[in-house]
Specification:
This protein is mainly α and 210 residues long. It has helices spanning 7-41, 47-54, 58-64, 68-87, 96-113, 115-124, 127-133, 135-150, 160-179, 185-200. The chain folds into 2 domains: 18-66, Orthogonal Bundle (Arc Repressor Mutant, subunit A); 68-203, Tetracycline Repressor, domain 2 (Orthogonal Bundle). It is built from 10 helices and no strands. Keywords: DNA-binding, Transcription, Transcription regulation.
Length: 210
């Protein structure tokens, strides 16, 4: 008959496995943070550069992410998840124009922080995947716009997809202006809202569609 091991005999192995898992989780978290930092400075940063930013070897990074695209995808999920937690705290009640302004201001802060990561994602990932990753954020903007239309505050003569596209384009253009040093990140939110609010507002005499 074989001799069965006691729980006490298995304890060192279980502790070692637990430590290895904890190390792997810490490494993965460090890689994602490093990816966001490195790509913010340079959207074309390589896996080796991201590994150096994390203080890890390139093969360690590849042990967690098989390709650069997989790493960028995971970094986007992490970044958007943190952003979702922030945007969920933005009050969207009250007059639609004010709610829209608050949402855009908070969204701009997140866009500005992750613009390099987004640029890398747009280059590395399929456009369908980028849209999928932003689905929750887009749904929040859509909800405010739809409420504004229902309450007569926002125009209804333009398709919803065009209003959303316009919002994205203006915010991305602001990010480019900040990178070029033409505006400050602090001024950008005000400029974005100054452009978008008149563009979406229901104006007297403007033909509306039901």
């Amino acid at each position: 008959m074989g001799v069965s091991s006691s729980p006490r005999d298995d304890a060192p192995d279980q502790a070692r496995i637990a430590n290895q898992r904890a190390d792997a989780q810490r490494n993965r978290a460090s890689i994602l943070v490093a990816a966001a930092r490195a790509l913010r400075r340079n959207p074309e940063a390589s896996v080796a550069e991201i590994a150096a930013e994390a203080g890890l070897g390139r093969m360690t990074v590849y042990g967690h992410f098989k390709t650069r695209a997989e790493l960028i995808d995971a970094a986007m999920i992490e970044s958007l998840g943190r952003g979702e937690d922030i945007l969920a705290q933005v009050p969207l009640d009250g007059p639609p124009a004010e709610a829209f302004g608050r949402l855009i201001e908070s969204s701009w802060t997140l866009v500005n922080e992750s613009r390099g990561l987004l640029a890398a994602a747009q280059e590395e990932l399929p456009s369908e995947r980028v849209r999928e990753l932003h689905a929750k954020a887009e749904a929040r903007v859509r909800g405010v716009l739809e409420r504004g239309q229902q309450e007569g505050a926002f125009r209804t003569d333009l398709p919803m997809h065009w209003l959303l596209t316009t919002t994205h384009v203006v915010m991305n253009a602001a990010a480019d202006e900040v990178v070029a040093g033409l505006v400050t990140s602090e001024d950008a939110a005000r400029l974005i809202i100054a452009v978008l609010q008149p563009a979406i507002a229901a104006a007297p005499g403007r033909e509306q569609q039901c």
